[in-house]
Every structure is written in structure tokens, then in C-alpha cells.
Amino acid sequence: MTNADSIEKRIPIWFDTDPGVDDAMAMALLFAIPEYDVKGVSAVAGNVELDKTFENARNLVAFFGRKDVPVYKGAARPLFREPRTATFVHGENGLGNMTLPASDAPVEKKPAWDALYEAAKAAEGELVLVAVGPLTNVALALSKYGSLPKLLKEIVIMGGSAKWGNASPAAEANIFCDAEAASTVFQSGVPITMCGLDMTLQTTMSPAELDRMGQLNPTAKFLRDAAQHGLAYSQAHGVDGMALHDPTAVLWPLYRGDIFAGEEAGVAVETKGTITYGKTVTDLYSDKQFPFKNAFVLLEVDKEKLFEAVTDLLKRY
Ligand code: RIB
Ligand code: CA
């Protein structure tokens, strides 16, 4: 296994999240990649309320052996609309109602958007932001700090879709939670990679594959056990497995074209529609193009290579 010291130029990463079961798996992968230098983690309201996503993020960081990484609290609600949770997938506590030991790391008092900005300044334009929840924290940071767009090398989001919806027929859950925040992010001028449903719905892990993953070690077993609540919900709705939505966003900065494929596109977020609120409108399937190309939209994934990477990384615990 490569260790961090033998790597010339590590990638400074900030991870914004609403844990969340797939967020938890994504975080496990994040900390298993020696090429990543994780500068901070920030919690946002999303899958469950902020107090729970913040506690889950703290406890997961400790569980993965990385109490050296600070965890910050972010927004308790979207910029304008009412909060909506996804406890039907992630359980009341956000981790499939599995419990973790409480972290004894100091509780950071600085708000997430201030901590993110300071990390971006310190990284001198090299910071890669991976955001796998509603984009409220990111929008607040961009609104408060006018120089932030120049300080972010890339924003990788799990969110959106060119063709699909999982929160409504038009919209993906993270965008649907806070479309105004997402619109701010897509208009920020920062290079964006959109790990949306077009690609993530190709990553469904079957119950048997989850069970095999759970046999790797206690960390993987926790992730497999936490997935059971959402798996039952998926199976009750005709999908026999769990999509690795958030893990794909964590793998993108390192694996890129080795595992994924996509296209440059113009993407705009619908914030006014009653039926289409939260839709990421792309010009991928239109002869009418937007006058901008602001995102690289992932459309394909080599599922076998993805699962191989997930297994190799989880084996490191
Ligand atoms: O649509 C899937 C996304 O919504 C994932 O980030 C999941 O954790 C939920 O936040
Ligand atoms: Ca998430």
C-alpha cells in the first residue's frame, strides 16, 4: 500500500457532506486514499437534520481513525425553502440507525463556510471541494467570500442529472433540497464535475455484493449494516441494491477517466418551477446550447473497476 509520505504531490481535499449512509461509505474511501490530504470536513442539513449530520460526521471521522481532521458545522436549513430529510432511506439517525462511539475530538466552533474559505486560502488555489449533500454551505461560502471562486481548483458534486430524478421526476435529491444554493454554485465560475444520477444509477451494489463487502473487516461491516435500512426501502421500490452515489464523487479526483466518462456541458438549475424545481438543465441533448460550458457531466462508469477500487480501499482498514 502506498503511504502518504511516498507521494510527491498530494491533493488537498475539503469534504462537505450530509451523512447519510452513502456519505459514510464515501468518507471511508476518502480517508483510505493516501493521495488525498483532507483539510476538513463540513456537515450540512440534508439526509437528516444538521445536529445529526454534524454528530455523524464527527463520529465517522473518529471511527475511520482520523480525529486529526477537523469537522465543522454548517447550515441547518436551505437558503430559502423548507428543509426536507430522507430518513426513509437513511434512518432516523442518518446511519441506518446503526450507532458509533461518540467522538471525543474538540467541537469546532467556526462555521463551515469560514473554515472552508480559510482552507482554500491556505491551499493557494489547489483545494478540491467534494460536496455530496445539498450545496447550502458551499453557496454561503461563495456568497460571503468573493475571492473564493479563484481559490478553488475544482468543485466535485454528487448531485443533479441530465435525465433522471430521485426526489421528483425532474430533480435529484441534493439539488432538490436547495436549488438556489446549487444555482449559485453552477454560476460561480469554478470548474465543476457533476457526478449525477446519469452515472450513479449505474453503480447499484447488490445485497450479495454488500454482504461480501461487509466480510472485509469491521469498518466495512459497519457500512454494510448501515446500508440495510436503505436497501429495504430500495427493494420495496423495485431496486435490489444500493447506489454508490457519494462514493463516486470521492473517487473522481483520483481515478477520473480510468473509471468514469462524461461530457462538457452547459448546466443551469431551475429554481422557479413548481414541477421542475431543482432540475439541472443541461444542453447535452439539445441543439440549443447554453452560451457557456460550466460543468463536466459524468455519464458512464466502469462498474467493475469502481467496485474493485472500493474493495481495495476498504481493505486498508
Ligand atoms: O441523490 C443522492 C444523494 O442524496 C446522495 O448524496 C445521498 O446521500 C443524498 O444526500
Ligand atoms: Ca449525501
How is the secondary structure organized here?
Blueprint: E1 11-17, H1 21-30, E2 36-43, H2 50-63, E3 71-73, H3 87-90, H4 112-122, E4 127-131, H5 136-144, H6 148-151, E5 152-158, H7 173-177, H8 179-186, E6 192-195, H9 197-200, E7 204-205, H10 207-214, H11 218-226, H12 228-236, E8 242-243, H13 245-255, E9 260-265, E10 267-269, E11 280-282, E12 295-301, H14 303-314
Parallel strand pairs: 1-2, 1-4, 2-3, 4-5, 5-6, 6-12
Antiparallel strand pairs: 7-8, 9-12, 10-11
Helix pairs in contact: 1-11, 1-13, 4-5, 5-8, 10-11
The chain binds alpha-D-ribofuranose and calcium ion.
Alpha-D-ribofuranose binds at residues 18, 20, 22-23, 46-47, 132-133, 158, 166, 172-174, 245-246.
Could you describe the 3D structure shown?
There is one protein chain. The protein is an alpha/beta fold and 317 residues long. The protein has a single domain (4-314), classed as Ribonucleoside hydrolase-like (Inosine-uridine Nucleoside N-ribohydrolase, Chain A). The chain has 14 helices and twelve strands. An eight-stranded mixed β-sheet has the order 3-2-1-4-5-6-12-9, sandwiched between helices. Helix 1 (21-30) links the parallel strand 1 (11-17) and strand 2. The chain is globular, with a radius of gyration of 18 Å. The structure holds alpha-D-ribofuranose and calcium ion. Calcium ion binds at residues 17-18, 20, 23, 47, 132-133, 246.
